[in-house]
Structures are given as structure tokens and as C-alpha cells.
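Working notes for the structural subgroup meeting. M.R. asked for a predicted model of this chain before we commit to crystallization trials. I am recording the input and output together here so anyone reviewing the notebook later can reproduce the run.

Input as submitted:
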Amino acid sequence: MVVRVLKSAVALSAFSIISACATEPDVTRATVWGAIGDRRAITSIARDFVRDTPYVVHFAFNKSNLDATARSELDIQARWIIQHPTVRFSVYGHTDKVGSNAYNQELGRARAEEVIAYLISRGVSLAQLELKVSMGEDAPIIDVDTAEEINRRATTYVAGLTQVAAAEDESDERDPELPEEEPEHDDEPEHDEGPEHDDEPEHDEEPEHDDEPETESKGY
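Returned structure, recorded in C-alpha cell form:
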């Protein structure tokens, strides 16, 4: 019962973290497009992922291999991720505080890598699993020095959108500008500079050419 209550607390706490991460400039679509609406969309996707999947899996003491429960939970994650091919995910590995910090960093990394390897084996694209980070013992749910199961975990977070989605969106933004380039092509006003070309007053300077009155006065 206590573990269930703690897991509920973990879910609420982790959702707050995900929402914060999703709005950070380095993990949002707003970094690429500068659009606040996209940042909100990422936050909404993160909320859906937390709601629809068991995004946290747990490990036995001093182990990085997945048990049957963890594999079943990752199967659900994999199906959700495959259905959202333009979304990127980060996997964070965690440990309890038993053992040295250096050892726990390696153990946390091994747990994150184990999750990523399993998700890929279930059909998830590597391009969607951008980061694997070991938090080691530095981010416990329960800050105690004992071997707490709830601290031995790997967490999958929504990180942003894939580069393919970014390229498609940038292309869509450029398309409306293409018709505006046509005025540069049909700059006929520069071609029909009639006033400069037909300056006939300079060409028909007949007053200077027909000064016959002066010639006739000399002949007389």
C-alpha cells in the first residue's frame, strides 16, 4: 500500500518535471521555430504520455536487467512511441544511494541503455530516443541512504520533436514566400522606361537646326 502511494506521488512529481523539461528551450520545438504554440503542444504530448503509459520502470537491487513487469510496461511505452513518430524521448537511469557515486552513475547508465535497447527491439526508431542520461543517486524519490526500490528506476520523458518534423515545418513556412518573388521577375516598369527612351524634345531640336533666317540675311 505504501509503495502504491509513493508511486502515485512519483507520478505527480514526475509530471511536474516533464512539464518543466518540455518547456525548456533546448528540448522544445520552439527552439527551432520560435513558436509558443509549439511549446504548448510538446507540453500537451508529455501530459498524454504520462497519462497513457507506465513511463517509469523499476529494477532489482544492484541490477540493470529488466524483469517481466518492466518488459510489459515497456511494451506499452513502445506502442505509444511508435504511434507518435515525430516525437523524441529521453531515458534517465536512476539508482538508490547504496554504493559509491561513481558506481551508481555507471549503474544508472546501464539501466537507461537497457530500456533503450528493449524499446528498439520492440520497433521504436533510434532517432526517437535521442538521449540516455544517468542520474545515478542524485535524484531520489525518497532521499534516504537505504536500498529503496522506488529510487531504482528508469524514466522515459518526452523531449521534443524529431529533425524530420523540424524540416517539414520549416519547408511549410517557406512556401508562402515563393509567390512574392515574382515581382522581381516581371519588372517591366524598368523595361518600359518610356520617358527616358523617348525624350524627343532633345532629339527634335529644330530651333537650333533650322536657323535659316540667319543664313538668308547673310545672303541678302
